[in-house]
Amino acid sequence: MSQSDPAPAAGRSAAFRFIFACALMNAVSFGIMIPVLPNLIKQFAGGDTAHASEINVVFSVTWGLMQFFCGPILGMLSDRIGRRPVLLISFFGLAVDFLFMTFAPTLAWLFIGRIINGMTAASFSTANAYVADVTPPEARAKTFGMMGAAFSFGFLIGPVMGGFLAGSAMQHLLGNFALRLPFLVAGILTAINWLYGYFILPESLPIERRMTKFDWTRANPVGSLGFLKAHGALLGLATTGFLFQLSHTVLPSIFVLYAGYRYHWGPDIVGLTLLLTGLLGILVQTLLVGPVVARIGERGALLLGTLGGALGFALYGFAPNGWAYVASAPVFALINFTQPGLQGLMTRRVGPQEQGRLQGANQSLQGIASITGPLVFGESFAWAIRHDAVLHAPGLPIFISASLMLIAFFLAVKVGRPMAAASTLA
Q1: What is the pTM of this model?
Q2: Contact by Cβ (8 Å): 289, 301
Q3: Which of 408, 409, 397, 240 is nearest to 313 (CA)?
Q4: Residues near 414 by beta carbon (within 8 Å), at least 6 away in sequence
Q5: Which of 39, 85, 183, 305 could be bridged to 337 by S-S, CB 3.0 to 4.6 A?
Q6: Under a CB-based contact definition with an 8 Å cutoff, are residues 383 and 54 in contact?
Q7: Residue 128 buriedness (CB in 10 A; 0-12 / 13-18 / 19+)
Q8: Residues 145-149: what's their mean pLDDT?
Q9: What is the torsional sign of CA 365, 339, 130, 147?
Q10: Straight-line distance from the first to the last Cα atom of the chain, in angstroms, rounded to the nearest whole number
Q11: Residues 6+ positions from 106 with CB-CB distance below 8 Å
Q12: How far is CA 334 from CA 23, 250, 303, in A?
């Protein structure tokens, strides 16, 4: 088959089902730890919420640094040796991290696990490159929406599982180990995912379409930024994506501690809240992204997502009680249009040999967001609760996120104009 010939639709559909299943299992295992890890850190911190937030900042910044430096390497490596080997590396690193979380006797051991995971975390970026390999440009936004649904489904099931496994019923049965049990379960799921990828997942990038040589001079953050700049409006779109990723780190950075402080929610209520937001995200990504993109285009979806995210964050920050927070969730769900529209526009601007490099560059920017976000949001939250008697503003970090999404909206207005794909699908 020549590079200009489209791949058979049945083959593309089967390949996408494989990668969707991998992304789904990975998202579930990742979601399990969300309502639990901050509480484990808090336990190591002697129950001090503000100190736990500061420790969480150190962990998140370290993870982001590893992403910043290793993301471009893994992205370019997937262009050189294929998507499947890089996915297997990523699954392995995540499984090792979960084992560290399960048995870590000190914070230092947790820290080592985060380093390993940060160095190898490329599952979602490589999955996006895989999708670009097997999907025609005009159908990518809808397909990226389905990939987003896999991630949302992980947030639908994973946090509920994590909250239950670490909840009061399991604590009655297992004592203190109940706080570690979710990580053991997540590690087992990740190991199953690795086996699934090894024995079943097909490679999406044929040898004739791979990068001919791995260039270390370009496999670095500086080279990634140069790559984005060299493709016209790609840098502006990537900056929009960076603002989106940066604002999005606010909830992983503070939500568990924030909800416990402001609304007095435990892991079970946190898990149910994430269940609701995950369900709303799935509804948007599976049922609405395709029709909306068909009607208003990828740029329109991007604008709808960034503006909806700005409004949703603002409502979250103002919510005086738990019910008001939950009532704001449908507005915030509009943010789920951002990534499909953005990825659809970006993947049109590079050819098949550079999809991995594009996603690696995005991963590097996500690493910067993972470094900056916890610093901004974790420290602003710690400051807000320490000065609560003087200035009652526990929602301060969420208001910062709303501002970032509003900036992303105005930038997307300028740089989000569509263009023809760089090349057709092989």
Answers
A1: 0.67
A2: yes
A3: 397
A4: 236
A5: 305
A6: no
A7: buried
A8: 81
A9: positive
A10: 8
A11: 44
A12: 22, 17, 10
Which CATH number characterizes residue 348's domain? 1.20.1250.20
Q: Could you tell me the residue range of the domain that residue 105 belongs to?
A: 9-202+227-415
| CA 294/CA 300 separation, integer angstroms | 10
> How many Cβ atoms sit within 10 Å of the Cβ of residue 366?
26
Name the one residue in this structure whose structure tokens are 């009532």. Answer: 327
Cβ atoms 367, 117 nearer than 8 A: no
23: three-class secondary structure by DSSP: helix
49-102 pLDDT tens trace = 778 877 877 887 787 788 777 777 888 888 888 888 998 998 898 888 889 888
Residue 233 in any domain: the answer is yes
Which residues, in sequence order, are CB contacts of 229 under 8 Å at separation 6+?
235
Among 92-96, 275-279, 365-369, name the most confident range. 92-96
DSSP state of 6: P
Residue 311 lies in a domain: yes
- Closest listed residue to residue 334, CA positions, set 283, 290, 297, 376: 283
Length of the chain: 426
- The answer as to whether 423 is a domain residue is no
**What total of structural domains would you count in the chain?**
1
**pLDDT tens-digit readout, 338-355:** 988 888 888 887 777 777
Look at residue 94 and tell me if it is in a domain.
Answer: yes
Residue 301: closest CA among 329, 333, 340, 343: 340
